[in-house]
Write a structure and sequence with these properties.
Helix content: 40-55%
Number of strands: 4
Number of domains: 2
Order of helices and strands: HHHHHHHEEHHHEHHEH
Amino acid sequence: MTKRIVYLSLLTLVSALLAFVPSQSAPKRAQTPALPYSPSLDVNSMDKSVSPCVDFYHYACGNWQKMNPIPADQTSWSVYAKLFEDNLNFLHGILEEAASNTGHRDAITQQVGDFYAACMDEAGAEKRGLSAIQPQLDAIANLKSTQGMAALVAWLQFDYGETILFSGGSGQDLDNSEQVIAQLDQGGLGLPDRDYYTKDDAKSKETRERYVQHLQKTFALMGDNAETASRNAGTVMRLETALAKAALTRVERRDPYKLKHKMTVAELNQLASNFDWKVYFREAGYPGFVTINVGAPDFFKEVNARLAAGG
């Protein structure tokens, strides 16, 4: 029942665990950066076959584009993107060297190398399985009613830094930039944006289908049989879709006035009475406050409705 609400937290935590396991299909990064870099003006990047009076951009950058096609795993490419990637390659080389050096290492290098090696220990991660998040799984399994939801969500959010069900924290008062106040905002979606759940084009439908497949595989990794995994994945998708439809669009969120809804805790309790906000703020470690800004009231109305319906 209410356990369905926190399936989102399960998936987030499992994804965080699996993120430490390296992809076997990922290409191995270079161990050294591409140095030295070209000077600011590289005449070899110019395409002098193009008239600058007709197309100055391709005149100045045409050859660079030809020599640097967009990588298959990127949506765009530029000098700055290439520089960023080269820097990652360089840092990766430092980590590999620190981890593989079994000789004399200073204390910092050893700590960095040991930490990196532990993260890249695929065999160890496979052996540990779900043990790293077993306390969270047990807490979710022991949830019996909506009364325990607030403490659980607070724990998952602020101990692990995830937007479970919604986003909480603090930020600048939109009426006074010198003052920081408590804030709540929409969140809790597995896909990158609410539009992924609402668009009806073929690509969006395909993305949702693949997302459900991902959810099924995640539940299977947690031990569900095929039927249960499919049912749980459908529950998560229905819940996230309902929350997404109640969320503000990116365009709407560009209007600061649509994000300003300051209220008291008493008013917040009226807005979403099925969630124990007093317990949530206490367990999350909020200091005492009078005013809180709720960025998307309609979203929290939907959260309240989902809680009332048991998911």
